[in-house]
TrEMBL record:
Pfam families: Aminotran_3. This is acetylornithine transaminase. InterPro entries: AcOrn/SuccOrn_fam, Aminotrans_3, Aminotrans_3_PPA_site, Class-III_PLP-dep_AT, PyrdxlP-dep_Trfase, PyrdxlP-dep_Trfase_major, PyrdxlP-dep_Trfase_small. It catalyses: N(2)-acetyl-L-ornithine + 2-oxoglutarate = N-acetyl-L-glutamate 5-semialdehyde + L-glutamate. NCBIfam families: argD (TIGR00707), PRK01278.1 (NF002325). It is found in: Mitochondrion. Its main location: mitochondrion. It comes from Actinidia chinensis var. chinensis.
Length: 465
């Protein structure tokens, strides 16, 4: 196995790098000054396997974490683990420790790690053509768009590189449609509705649609004209849509980051009806809950309600960056050349990978297996954990499951990681979020439930502290 091995000629704790620092490159070496102290590091390739260098593994992990503290912007509070390889639903760190992955790269790795068909699609395409930009046609991009429209409500697809970019595009398309469809109206609808506990991304438009104030406040003013309503409040949504000011309503059929809350059929139907009456657009954000995660290919299929646009990203290319907006012909007809674009979007490499992912997860038997495993896992969690006084509701659909706690979930996350299980938080930090690869086995789900049960007592200790 090959890995980057950083050789430091002095040892400085990560905390030291949170102070004033500067970096320059001299003779191929990184020279970092931190509070007047000079540190030099050089990057070399370490081809030793974990087995042959287990004793050096811990040192190598420390080096990677120290280097991260020096050279990356501190936007992530990372867990103290350096992951180096993975297979299926298992991940391994530099010390060779095994982890059962119930995060799937935050609901990204639908086929797990190292799926042979996915690897073949990536390597074969990389050897032929990776990127040409959208100035030219490429076969994998057209094929993926054909498949996405064939298995959805949509007539057209716009490709981008992430979920937040997909929502940015949907914002622009909604504004353009309103202007295009009302040429004689001096001020067409430009405002948006979003909901409590929503998460739509971190770029300025998508951020404006995201409900958590701590995400928005440091960057205000963000895009104006967004009203947040209570998720599920039919009356409030209908009244605001009927005002005639709303260009589009953005809603997650199942909220992921917000705490694994599912919409009701009545709520989504009421949004559809109100938008139809006024000409507002209904946008479903299925970045996290779409593409098989619920046991349906699209989460909204469970409700029988269909949007004007749908945003996708996370699992579509199985770990490579891609985003997409699926839209009806009515919306697409308002978009002209030059209205939007992206250099990297829909490249041949990522689209070929996405075709392989879509081939697998769209199979009825695959979706049925996700649904079955989700029911099994949810029932097991309720049976094993339900008697604990800290555990409230266990909710979700398919393999997007949340366990609500009456205390912060972070001590449980840490304890599970130390016991070989990787899990996420959601909501206000009090929800355990479980979004494993869709190929996870029932045996692996059972093991995850056992580790959660074994680690639950840590919540009592956190309360006493």
């Amino acid at each position: 196995m090959s890995s980057i091995h950083l050789l430091l000629n002095t040892s400085i704790s990560p905390a030291a790098y949170n102070t004033r620092r500067s970096m320059k490159v001299e003779n191929g070496k990184f020279s970092v000054t931190s509070n007047g102290r000079r540190v030099v590091a050089r990057a070399t390739v370490d081809v030793r396997s974990p087995e042959s260098s287990a004793s050096a593994g811990k040192l190598r992990s420390a080096e990677v974490m120290e280097a991260e503290a020096r050279v990356l912007v501190g936007t992530y509070a990372r867990a103290p683990v350096v992951l180096s390889s993975g297979k299926g639903c298992k991940l391994y760190d530099l010390e060779g420790r095994e982890y059962l992955d119930m995060t799937a790269g935050i609901a990204v790795n639908a086929l797990g790690h190292g799926d042979p068909d996915w690897v073949r699609a990536v390597t074969e395409q990389a050897s032929v053509l990776t990127h040409v930009s959208n100035l030219y046609y490429s076969i994998p991009q057209v094929e993926l768009a054909k498949r996405l429209t064939a298995c959805s409500f949509a007539d057209r697809v716009f490709f981008c590189n992430s979920g937040t970019e997909a929502n940015e595009a949907a914002i622009k398309f909604a504004r353009k449609l309103q202007r295009f469809s009302r040429p004689d109206v001096k001020q067409p609808p430009t405002e948006f509705i979003s909901f409590s506990n929503s998460f739509h991304g971190r770029t300025m438009g998508a951020l404006a649609l995201t409900s958590k104030e701590q995400y928005r406040t440091p960057f205000e003013p963000v895009m104006p004209g967004v009203t947040f309503l209570e998720y599920g409040n039919i009356q409030a949504a209908q009244e605001l849509i009927q005002s005639g000011k709303i260009a589009a309503v953005f809603v997650e059929p199942i909220q992921g980051e917000g705490g694994i809350y599912s919409a009701t059929k009545e709520f989504l139907q009421s949004l559809r009806s109100a938008c139809d009456d006024t000409g507002s657009l209904l946008v479903f954000d299925e970045v996290q809950c779409g593409l098989g995660r619920t046991g349906y290919l699209w989460a909204h299929e469970a409700y029988g309600v269909f949007p004007d646009m749908m945003t996708l990203a996370k699992p579509l290319a199985g770990g490579l960056p891609i985003g997409a907006v699926l839209l009806t012909e009515r919306v697409a007809a308002s978009i002209s050349y030059g209205d939007h674009g992206s250099t990297f979007a829909g490249g041949a490499l990522v689209c070929n990978a996405a075709n392989t992912v879509l081939d697998k997860i769209s199979q009825p038997e695959f979706l049925a297996s996700v649904s079955g495993k989700g029911k099994y896992f949810k029932e097991m969690l309720m049976q094993k954990l339900g008697g604990n006084p800290h555990v409230g509701e266990v909710r979700g659909m398919g393999l997007i499951i949340g366990i609500e706690l009456d205390v912060p979930a972070s001590p449980l996350v840490d304890a599970c990681r130390n016991s070989g299980l990787l899990i996420l938080t959601a909501g206000k930090g009090n929800v355990v979020r479980l979004v494993p690869p869709l190929v996870v086995s029932e045996q692996e789900l059972g093991r995850a439930a056992e580790i959660l049960l074994e680690c639950l007592p840590v919540l009592d200790k956190s309360m006493s502290n």
